[in-house]
């Protein structure tokens, strides 16, 4: 009888130990489920591109130097709005396709989940076009735009194909969103230092560039997000512009999105594309 009572006591001890183990395990599960966003699984996001992605024009550039990476740029706004996003922000003002392929793509990894990019404007001579159209005659402006459009039609598609293929190779499982460029100016009559002839030609050039970039992005299987709708009614010389005109004390910001343009234009477009 003493032996049987001892055996019963040991059984009770084993059951109590098992119950305690289950309680501890359950507590661990609950604790894991209540981790803060900082400790939760992260999505790796790489922001590639030129000044329209770096946030040139939106201020707060920190220590980014000539790249003009703004704390108000749409990649930063997206990361802040999505806790758990690990942002690698390598877009740089003045970047061309060769800069993306030469350095920026090194930020891409096999486990990158999201990639955004705006590229192509500098490859077709954006700076030269706007300079000529700002200070030159209508004829000089339209002639320079024609040359830029020819370059966009003949040389840019191949460059974009190479860029997009490299992104896909380095980050095959990433969702890639290619963002376009806005029309810069108000359409139709407006009180503006730039003539209507120039504004019309520049806006048509923006449309041509958008069609080329959209075609190559979709051919690569990427999402193309057209920002012209978001910026409609907010170009230079409108009553509520989201794009800077000429800025004598900050020339690099001329004809680039303002803080409102990054927030209500680009960030809104990106959110619309992926949620």
Question: How would you describe the overall organization of this protein?
Answer:
This protein is 49% helix and 9% strand. The protein contains 10 helices and 5 strands, in the order H-E-H-H-E-H-E-H-H-H-E-H-E-H-H. A 5-stranded parallel sheet has the order 2-1-3-4-5, sandwiched between helices. Helix 8 links the parallel strand 4 and strand 5. It is globular and about 50 Å long. The chain starts with a helix and ends with a helix. It comes from Actinokineospora spheciospongiae. GO terms for molecular function: triacylglycerol lipase activity. Keywords: Disulfide bond, Hydrolase, Signal. This is Putative secreted hydrolase.
Percent of sequence in beta strands:
5-15%
Strand order of the largest sheet: 2-1-3-4-5
Number of E strands: 5
Helical coverage, percent range: 40-55%
What name does the CATH topology of the largest domain carry? Answer: Rossmann fold
Provide the CATH superfamily of the largest domain: SGNH hydrolase
How many discrete domains?
A: 2
Our Rg estimate from Cα atoms comes to: 26 Å
* Number of helices, where a helix is a run of at least 4 consecutive DSSP H or I residues: 10
CATH class of the largest domain: Alpha Beta
Label the overall shape: globular
Structural class: alpha/beta
What number is the mean pLDDT? 88
Terminal residue distance: 71 Å
What is the CATH architecture annotation of the largest domain?
A: 3-Layer(aba) Sandwich
Largest β-sheet summary? 5 strands, parallel
Low-confidence stretches: 1-13, 16-40
Topology as a string of helices (H) and strands (E): HEHHEHEHHHEHEHH
């Amino acid at each position: 009888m003493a032996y049987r009572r001892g055996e019963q006591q040991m059984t009770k001890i084993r059951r109590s130990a098992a119950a305690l183990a289950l309680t501890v395990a359950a507590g661990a599960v609950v604790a894991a489920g209540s981790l803060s966003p900082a400790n939760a699984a992260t999505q790796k996001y790489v922001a590639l591109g030129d000044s329209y992605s770096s946030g040139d024009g939106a201020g707060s550039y920190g220590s980014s130097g000539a790249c003009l990476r703004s704390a108000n740029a749409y990649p930063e706004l997206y990361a802040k709005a999505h806790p758990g996003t690990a942002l690698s922000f390598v877009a740089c003002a003045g970047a061309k396709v060769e800069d993306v392929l030469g350095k920026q793509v090194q930020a891409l990894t096999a486990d990158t989940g999201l990639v955004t990019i705006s590229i192509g404007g500098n490859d077709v001579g954006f700076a030269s076009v706007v300079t000529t159209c700002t200070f030159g005659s209508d004829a000089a402006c339209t002639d320079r735009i024609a040359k830029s459009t020819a370059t966009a039609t003949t040389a840019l598609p191949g460059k974009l194909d190479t860029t997009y293929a490299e992104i896909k190779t380095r980050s095959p499982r990433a969702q890639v969103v290619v963002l376009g460029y806005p029309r810069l100016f108000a359409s139709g009559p407006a009180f503006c230092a730039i003539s209507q002839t120039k504004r019309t030609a520049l806006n048509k050039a923006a449309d041509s560039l958008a069609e080329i970039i959209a075609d190559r992005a979709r051919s690569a299987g990427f999402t193309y997000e057209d920002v012209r709708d978001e910026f409609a009614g907010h170009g230079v010389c409108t009553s509520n512009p989201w794009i800077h005109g000429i800025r004598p004390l900050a020339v690099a910001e001329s004809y680039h999105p303002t803080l409102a343009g990054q927030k209500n234009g680009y960030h809104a477009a990106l959110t619309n594309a992926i949620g």
